[in-house]
Design a protein that fits this description.
Strand content: 15-25%
Number of strands: 7
CATH class: Alpha Beta
Largest sheet: 4 strands, mixed
CATH topology: Trna Endonuclease, Chain: A, domain 1
CATH superfamily: Uncharacterised protein PF11572, DUF3234
Strand order of the largest sheet: 3-4-6-7
CATH architecture: 3-Layer(aba) Sandwich
Structural class: alpha+beta
Shape: globular
Number of domains: 1
Number of helices: 7
Helix content: 40-55%
Distance between the termini: 17 Å
Amino acid sequence: MELLKNFISEVRENDMLWLLEAKPGLFAMVEDGDENSYIPVWSSEAEAVANISEDWEEYSVTNMNIAEFVGWMNELHEDEIGIAISTGEGGQMLPVPAKMMKQLFNGMAIDAEEDKKLVGEEYYDEEWAEGIPDNWEEEYLDSLDDEEDEE
């Protein structure tokens, strides 16, 4: 899960990530074998450009800052759309639920009032919005290792 750690670190360092966009607000999407939808993201512009292929040849590379991206996670979660972190290796992607992505970036810096404005106070769920502790990597990666052992 070094990939996830590196992605989070690089995106935090640059305060942005990269996506492929067909037109404003219409982003490239992928599906897994169970028909779950994901929006692919990259930690650098060069990686995003390298992934423009036949299916996405009309798409352009765009960036999004972390604050906007994290704010978008509530909507994606509601729409059951996750995030796919591109590994750049033969189209491989690491799927991450939108809720988890929000927690990975928010961690210790949650702005509950801003979240309430984004989703509306009546829809705000404090438990959902809680960040994860600083040592999230250990617990999250351990849970992934446990899942792999079960398979």
